[in-house]
Amino acid sequence: MLYNYVNELKFENEISDTLKIETKLFSDQHEWD
């Protein structure tokens, strides 16, 4: 149970990191416009 909970948190952190990276890339691209 605890193991699943930790895995869920880790998974959500990876998703949010990915979103942050994608958001940064997106905004970096649009600064050139």
Walkthrough of the structure:
With 33 residues, the protein is an all-alpha fold. It contains one helix and no strands. The longest helix has 30 residues, at 2-31. The mean pLDDT is 85.
What's this model, at a glance?
By secondary structure, the chain is mostly helical.
Name a few traits of the molecule:
33 residues; mainly alpha; 0% strand; rod-shaped
Q: How do the SSEs run, as a string of H and E? A: H
Q: Taking Cα atoms only, what radius of gyration do you get, to the nearest Å?
A: 15 Å
Percent of sequence in beta strands: under 5%
Distance between the termini: 49 Å
**Helix proportion:** over 70%
Main sheet specs: none
Number of strands: 0
Judged by helices, strands and strand pairing, the structural class is mainly alpha
Secondary-structure topology with pairs:
Layout: H1 2-31
